[in-house]
Amino acid sequence: FVFAGLLFWVGLKFLRTYFVQPARMLPRAETANIVCVAAVMKLGGFFIGVLAGLVLALVNIVGELAAMNCVQYSSTARETRSNAVRSVRAEQLLLQHGDSVLVLRLAPGFVFFATSAQLLHLVEERIHSVPPPWQS
Hints:
- With 136 residues, the chain is mainly α.
- It contains 5 helices and 2 strands; from the N terminus they run αααβαβα.
- Helix content is 66%, strand content 8%.
- It has a two-stranded antiparallel ribbon with strand order 1-2.
- Helix 2 (28-44) packs antiparallel against helix 3 (46-67).
C-alpha cells in the first residue's frame, strides 16, 4: 500500500513538472500539440508519436509565420529615395510621377508561400487603386 502511494505521488509530480507547468507558459497551440503527441504515442507507439509531433510542429510554425506581416514599411518613390545620384531631369520625373511607384521594405525573415500571397494581395490592391500615369 505504501509503495502504491509513493508511485502515485511520483506520477503526479511527473505530470505537474512536465505537463502542467509548461502548459501555463506555452501558447495554447503548443500545449495542444503536446497533448496530441502524448495521445498518439499512447495509441500508436513512439515512432508514430514522433512523426505526429513533427507534422504538428510544422503546421504550427507555418501558421505562425503566415500570421506575421511581411511588409515593414510601405511608401511611394516621392517619399522614399535611394542613394543613387540622379540628374535634375530624373529628380523632376520622380517628383512628378513618384506616387505611381510603390516602395516596400520587407520585414526581416522569410518570404514564403503564405507571406508571398499577402505581398501579392498588397501589390494588386495598389495596382487597382492608383491609375497609371498615362491616364492621369
